[in-house]
Amino acid sequence: MPVQSGGGVRTVEAAAALADAGVARVVIGTAALENPSLVTAVSARQPVAVGLDARGTDLASHGWEVSSGLDLCQVAQRFAGEGVAAFVVTEIARDGTLEGPSIQQLSAVLGAVGGTGVEVIASGGVGVVDHLRELSALTVEGVGLANELRQRLCIHLAHDAGAMNLYGNLA
After folding, report:
1. Closest Cα partner for 153 from 140, 162, 163, 139?
2. Residue 108: count of CB within 10 angstroms of its CB
């Protein structure tokens, strides 16, 4: 099973070490905003996902503590032309809430990078199976479910007989 990993990736060497350890795709967040040339250099060597954590369209960095003043869709468009394989898009206000992903935010990113071949992964907010169905209507390539699997979603999957087929078909 391919794994992507990130957190603290600030150099080409750190990204290469993850690849050497078997990581299929490295995620670069704050460093991508502070040093876009790092993304270009790493993506020339291995698959890269850029973590785009935002409050609405305002990108945040440093563990969501600092507003970057950069626009989510403009940054996504810029990186889409730099060889990035994917974006992991998180609406900070919804992450961990189980209240549903930000369809508006994801739709805006998909519209900004549509046709570029860059995957968009929705991260955060999923709390029930219907949220996964909403995401399946978009062209997202994946869904981050860390907190959600640990909390309610696993209960819903266990009790919803139809949900057991979601892994093969979200429709």
Report:
1. 163
2. 19
